[in-house]
Amino acid sequence: MKLVYFAIVVWTLCGLLGFGFSLPDSWVEIEQEEPTEVRNESPVTYKYDRIDEVKEECKSVLSSASELSPEDSSVYSIKRQISFKNGDWIQVNGKAPIMPFDVRYKENAYQSDRYFSTVPTEGSDPLNLVSFWVKDVNLAHRSKNSVSVSGLMTIGITANGNFGDYGYDQNSHFGIGPGQSELTIHFQGIYTESKRNGGERVVCMLGNTMLPDREINNPSSHPWEWVNASKPYENQQPPLLEDDRILLVLRFPKKFTLTSRAIRGEMRSLNPKSSDKYFDHVRVTSQLGSSANYEFTSEKIVSKACDPYPYKNGTAVIPVYKGNRFCKIIKGVTRQQAFTVLPNWQCDGEDNFCSKLGPFASANKGINATNGGFKGVNLYLQVIKCDQKTVNRYDSSARVSAVFRASPPSENRYTAAMRSGLGNMTVAAEGIWNSASGQLCMVGCPGIVDAEGNACDSRICLYIPISFSIEQRSIMYGTFSSLSTKPPSYFPLSFEMRILQPSELWNYFQFSRPSYNYTKSGLAGALLERNEEFSFRTVIKKSLLPFPKLEDSEAFEVSLSVLSEDLSLLTAAVPHSKTTNARPSRTEIQMDILSVGPLFRQYWSISSNSTAEEAPYRTKAQYSDNQLLLNVSAQLFITGKEYNNVSALFLEGLYDQRVGKMYLLGCRDVRASWQVLHDSMDLDNGLDCLIEVIVSYPPTTSRWLVDPTASISIASQRNDDDPLRFSPVKLRTFPISYRRQREDILSQRGIEGILRILTLSLAIACITSQLFYINQKTDSVPFMSLVMLGVEAIGYLIPLVTDAEALFKKESSDRSFESSSYDLENSRWFHVLDYMVKLLVMAALLLTLRLCQKVWKSRVRLQTRAPREPHRVPSDKKVLVSTLVIHIIGYILVLILHSMGIGQKPILRRSYAFSQGSSHVLSEWEIELEEYVGLVQDFFLLPQIISNIIWQIDSKPLRKLYYIGITVVRLLPHLYDYVRAPTRNPYFREEYEFVDPSMNFYSKFGDITIPLTAIVLAALVYVQQRWTYEKLSRSLTLGRCRLLPSASRMYERLPSNSKAFEAELASGANGSASNEEEHDLE
After folding, report:
1. Beta strands 515-516 and 467-468: pairing type?
2. Which pLDDT tens digit goes with each residue over 208-234?
3. Helices and strands, number each (H, E), in the chain
4. Alpha carbon distance 1052, 1058 (integer Å)
5. Which segments cross the bilayer (predicted)?
6. Which domain covers residue 930, as residue numbers?
7. Full-model pTM
8. Are residues 485 and 540 in the same domain?
């Protein structure tokens, strides 16, 4: 039996250490997110059983096809080059549409009971998108002038930006949902080449698919009655008709030039017009992509705009980039990022002239609604071809080709960046850049360009500034202007790419040494004087409380860089109000420090180019007031509709190191109609710069005394009747931490690991002492409560199974902390600590189970003594029921208290994902139950107190060291939580911040009340074991009122002498000696 017991212990230890450590990988707490579909493309066999039919329908294509020579490599690039994604399509007359479209969209089921709702009509119209891929090239069916190919087309209508552009092989199908329709068609046909239109590559194919059934007797405006059903239909298969009479002809230009880049095609039905399967002709447009080789052969057309070069467009003289990385910068900056279109605030003319979006068409409703302010209008630079050549060591030039695409405010940004169709919202451009001037001059051609470039009537000038100020925050700036001057067809249109992250400057311009020009220092000084109050509080702050400032470092730039990091903010905030009791609405803020003093870039980019060794920077003992003021520049972003007027601010001013305040002047990009902006003559380059901002930071120490939050105050200096004035904004951030405090947080994990080891070691010592104690006091062993020991065992078992932290509560947000400090958590030191904690928890669990075994065996032996009186043996049934009733009532009270304050706290949802792929979202009551389990463990002595009353004991079953020591172990985490500094952990998930402290067991209130209650329980156990039950009952008697029942004689026959009890147990009245020996082995 000893060997069996030892094997079980070893197996359990290895299993929990091995499999227990790996369990969190398959069961981890995650945030709610949309599921990601993973699809594997299975092998597909392509058939060419309709080639004869294809040749019959493609006679016109074959008649103009040229011979394909065996050496022609273009045949081997068909799959790579004969394809496009997210092109445009239209139907000619629309009497027989190819597919229906539902103008409803599905809402979040958690937010509304409505399943469908009408899409707003103010925005852009739904997009007609199409993608095509050649999936197979069959050289076995190659003829003199054609090659057999198979293709796949996805054509659809979308109002939400979702479109299937993945190109997976799948069965032909039609899918429809609210705001989205999509049709997949498989084709087989031929590939040919022609000399028409300067050389073309043509595919002519026949397709088959499942078309949606259309009732031809209905009016053309409502040909699909089943779409307009009031109930959802997405889980029902729409009525479909199989159609294999679809002809597709696509024409790709052989050469990729300014005037030859458009892909054009037509898809038409070969069915008669009377057929349900007939649809009107579909015209397709797209363009060659980045995989095609561009030929710069349009010098004559480019000279219309850029001869002589550079073009003098009156742009303000600012330093611009003239280095040899122009192509890399323009491609990197514009990759899926949009230019912001600036309003025509300088225009002075008719409304239809000043509100026009440059060379782009003015028929878009969303753009016209901006009235020349162009709010939300984006400009994308696509298919960039840049060829830069170095003339000598200092001079270089580049030839550039690209397509400018305008996007209305309501269009999905990702879809707009990925679209490839050419039309009235695109301008193809080609031009030259020279390092001598730093100007990129291009000619612009709207829509599809003819071979002569007759429509190329726009000039585009683009620059990359490397000097910045509060009014100049563009990392790329450009203009469109009309080549026709009598009269010009549109007012010059300006666009820019603004700084989104400071890292953009350091990534793209680390070798160009960009600079910042402070222009608002005088106004910021006046703002400081108006708001600098002289009071006792200010004197205390200046003399006693340290704020972020320049500190000793290895170099002056390093000290500036550290200060810049401390002053940056990325956190949540709420309105700063002292009167309201309602929970304020939350917003997100981000304040990036662009420059501090002379530092306008990360220090590493300087040191990497610096060869001279800098002297260490040391702060002085005393500074003058002016020396403690630093020039700073920043940008502030605030989310939320209520903050639209101040959603993006460019800031510049002074930082006072004495009181931790920044006094800033702000500029914002105002968007109103061009008339309003034109009449506002106090704009600075189109910016509203009459804004004052004050940012107050918390001190770097004394976090027990001062709330570690920053406050932001924003006010407009305009008059009340000014249309550009906005209401003052005051925000208070969530708790923030500085760099040194974050370093303390990172080391906190190691400190808590050491504390866990110490407390677990103390717990093991206490349990071991109890084991030695019961060996000496065998008469008291049956009176130890198994419920109490079970609560302790569960407390040790849970960390081994769920990977929760033992003793010290592991907050839910720690998972985010671990993922953010990946390198730290994977260090060998933390692995050693984790394994030591696991081993100690396992040891404590096994020792507790040994105590349970001892108590159980002692009660079994009592039941076997003669005469048998099982009713006199202590039983935990009543103890278990009483404990459960007390804790259930307590848990219900907690739920009631939480429900009363539910409006004052956020509803937390936790989700657990299992390795099988399923997930479970914890509800509010489950979260509270999880916290209440910890409370049950803290009150582990409650079952022993109840059992002492029920059994009316006159002995001492628990050793003082045991119950006092375990109580201390359970209370140490609360003491630690109470005394440690309330530093915000920057790695915590923010939904767990600012929870009402009164509603959490591990809050400051809980850290006081729980230990006091646990101490009271330990004191009760002490009194119960020191006094006999009869004496305790008399002491609690008040007149005729007895708080405890009278003493019972139920357990009187149990022997009180230890030696007699041992002799009686050893005799085994009803058992043989062999059975007793077997019991001992167990």
Report:
1. parallel
2. 999 988 765 555 556 677 676 545 454
3. 28, 34
4. 15
5. 753-774, 781-801, 835-852, 879-902
6. 752-809+832-864+872-899+924-987+998-1042
7. 0.69
8. no
